[in-house]
Amino acid sequence: MRIQGNKWFRNSQEIGGNAIDFLVDYYGLSPNEAIKKLLQDTGYTVNKKNGVKEKNKITRPGAPGRFDFNDIAIACDQRRVIAYLVKSRGIPPDIVLAEIQKGQLFQESQTGNAIFVMINEAGVIVGAEVVGTLNFENARFKGLKAGSVSGYGYTVGQKKNPRFILYFESAVDLLSFIIITRVRAKPLTACLLVSMAGLKFGVIHMSLKVFGNQHATPVLCVDNDEAGNRFIDHCLFQYPSAIIKQPDKKYKDWNDQLRGKTIVVNC
After folding, report:
1. C-alpha to C-alpha distance for 19 and 54, rounded to whole angstroms
2. Quick one: pLDDT band at residue 13, thresholds 50, 70, 90?
3. In sequence order, which residues have a C-beta less than 8 Å from that of residue 107 and are 6 or more positions away?
4. Cα distance between residue 137 and residue 154, in whole Å
5. CA dist., res. 12 & res. 2, Å (int)
6. 252 — pLDDT class (breaks 50, 70, 90)
7. CB 222 within 8 A of CB 231
8. Of 29-33, 170-174, 213-217, highest mean pLDDT
9. In which region does residue 86 sit, left (phi positive, over 0), alpha (psi from -120 to 50) or beta (all else)?
10. In this predicted structure, what is the pLDDT of residue 17?
């Protein structure tokens, strides 16, 4: 799915629309509920007496350069996130619970979304990758929390002078790769794993700068599809020593490979 401005478009089904359509199609809200939700999020309320929209004097969380993790309402328990990652994505419970205990994975209270925090070189949370846990027509919400600092991603592994920095298109693919390498008895020694939450060249540049001191070797662990291959070509132009490590050819991404979900990919 592509989002541009206040419009979205899902290429696979050739559907799209505005923000109201998105809430109706992806979250199952009625049109009236969607409108009320948007008014609340933009600081407006509806006066029940005369229907006039009134602007609330609030500061929007996540403004550029002002990301504050405290603005995210965290659920009292993480059951939906655990169920989603374990049952739907095939991630073993020990991996999921370890990330929760490290304070790198949370469940958002209102939406039940999975929140994978992004931590910078100083150990400060500077953003969050969001993964929806509700399935609407085999599509889940994915994105970044507003205000997340550009160039950073959700990370696992050695942050101090790693020899290799591995890049993934999502946090779920990153965790899936850890399980696959564990089954194959291949230790991830001196490796830092980074989720780009998409295909973001800026994340590669920033992480090599702040974690690898430009001496680490980038490893491109992106999807087996046209977009992933174009991204690889772009990266190799800038980093010709980069290593390519994609899923086995019959799988689109690392989570598909973990679950043994074969997909025919036209590249």
Report:
1. 20
2. low
3. 74, 75, 77, 78, 79, 80, 81, 113, 114, 115, 133
4. 27
5. 11
6. very high
7. yes
8. 170-174
9. alpha
10. 75
